[in-house]
C-alpha cells in the first residue's frame, strides 16, 4: 500500500537529508491540510514522524499529533521518540493505530518484545534504519540516526519474529531524502528471507517508476515523503501504480 508521510519538527513540516538535522528543509505547509489532501486522494494509512521527539524525547509533539489524528479518518502510524510504555499508551489513547519503534528495539529489546505480547503485532511496527557497509552488512542505526546501534537487521528481525513481528519499516539511510531511487535489492532480499513480514520500504523515492520498482520487490508498502512534498507525483498517481493499495 501507499503510505504518505510527513516529518515534523517544532510543528513544522520538514525533510532531512540522510537523517541529518543540520540539513533540514522546511515546507510552508499546514501539517493537517497536507495529510487531509493525502487522505482525500485515497490514502488509507498515513505516517507521521516526530523528529523533535526522536532527538529530544522530552519534547515529543503529542499534542499536535492528537490534533492531526482528530482531523483525519485514515489510519495513522506514528514514530519518533517513544521510550516507555506511558508514551505508547498515550499515542494509542489519542487514536493512533500503529506505533513505530526504532531505537528502543535495539537498546531495550526485552521491553519492546513485551509490548508485542501485550498489544499484539498489528499495533507495533519496527523501524529498522540501516547503514549498509562495504561488506554488505546491514547495521541498524539508533537515536534519530545520530549513532550506530551495532546490531544487524537480520538478528533483530529474528529476535522479534519469536513474538510475531508483522510490520517492519526499513530505510536505507544512504537513500533517504536523496530522490535517488529506493534500494529495491534490499527489499527483495528481505521479502525472500522473511516472507511472513509486511515490509514497508522507505527512502529515495523520486518517481512513479521508483514506486513500481518497490511494488515489484516484494515489499508490502511504501512510505513516500519528500517526493510528494515537492510534487514529483501525487498520492492518487502512486496508488494507481500499486493495485489494491
Distance between the first and last residues' Cα: 4 Å
Q: Structurally, how many domains make up the residues? A: 1
What ranges have pLDDT less than 50 throughout 5 or more consecutive residues?
none
CATH fold annotation: TIM Barrel
Biggest β-sheet strands, sense, barrel: 8 strands, parallel, barrel
Would you list the SSEs in sequence order as H and E? EEEHEHHEHEHHEEEHEHEHEHH
**Overall radius of gyration:** 16 Å
CATH class: Alpha Beta
Helix content: 25-40%
Q: Which strand-content bin applies to the residues?
A: 25-35%
Question: Given the C-alpha coordinates, what overall shape results?
Answer: globular
The CATH superfamily title = Aldolase class I
Structural class: alpha/beta
Strand order within the widest sheet?
1-4-5-6-7-10-11-12
How would you explain this protein's 3D organization?
- This protein is α/β, with parallel strands linked by helices and 245 residues long.
- The protein has a single domain, classed as TIM Barrel (Alpha-Beta Barrel), CATH 3.20.20.70.
- Helices cover 36% and strands 29% of the residues.
- It contains eleven helices and twelve strands.
- It has helices spanning 31-40, 51-55, 62-70, 85-93, 103-107, 109-119, 153-161, 184-193, 208-217, 226-229, 235-241; strands at residues 2-9, 12-17, 20-27, 45-50, 75-79, 98-101, 124-132, 138-142, 147-152, 167-172, 198-202, 221-224.
- It has an eight-stranded parallel beta barrel, surrounded by six helices.
- Helix 8 (184-193) runs parallel beside helix 9.
- The longest helix is centred in the middle third of the chain and has 11 residues, at 109-119.
- The mean pLDDT is 91.
Amino acid at each position: 500500500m501507499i503510505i504518505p508521510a510527513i516529518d515534523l519538527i517544532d510543528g513544522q513540516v520538514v525533510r532531512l537529508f540522510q537523517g541529518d538535522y543540520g540539513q533540514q528543509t522546511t515546507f510552508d505547509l499546514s501539517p493537517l491540510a497536507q495529510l487531509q489532501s493525502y487522505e482525500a486522494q485515497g490514502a488509507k494509512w498515513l505516517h507521521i514522524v516526530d523528529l523533535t521527539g526522536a532527538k529530544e524525547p522530552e519534547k515529543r509533539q503529542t499534542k499536535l499529533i492528537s490534533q492531526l489524528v482528530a482531523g483525519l479518518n485514515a489510519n495513522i502510524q506514528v514514530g519518533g521518540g517513544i521510550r516507555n510504555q506511558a508514551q505508547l499508551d498515550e499515542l494509542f489513547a489519542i487514536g493512533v493505530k500503529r506505533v513505530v519503534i526504532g531505537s528502543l528495539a535495539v537498546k531495550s529489546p526485552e521491553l519492546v518484545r513485551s509490548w508485542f505480547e501485550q498489544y499484539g503485532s498489528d499495533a507495533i511496527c519496527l523501524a529498522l534504519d540501516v547503514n549498509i557497509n562495504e561488506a554488505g552488512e546491514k547495521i541498524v542505526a539508533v537515536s534519530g540516526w545520530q549513532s550506530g546501534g551495532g546490531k544487524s537487521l537480520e538478528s533483530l528481525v529474528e529476535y522479534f519474529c519469536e513474538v510475531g513481528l508483522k510490520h517492519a519499516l526499513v530505510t536505507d539511510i544512504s537513500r533517504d531524502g536523496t530522490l535517488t531511487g529506493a534500494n529495491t535489492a534490499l527489499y527483495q532480499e528481505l521479502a525472500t528471507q522473511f516472507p511472513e513480514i509486511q515490509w514497508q520500504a522507505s527512502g529515495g523515492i523520486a518517481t512513479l517508476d521508483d514506486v513500481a520498482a518497490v511494488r515489484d520487490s516484494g515489499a508490502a508498502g511504501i512510505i513516500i515523503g519528500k517526493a510528494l512534498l515537492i510534487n514529483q507525483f501525487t498520492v492518487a498517481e502512486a496508488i494507481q501504480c500499486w493495485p489494491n493499495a
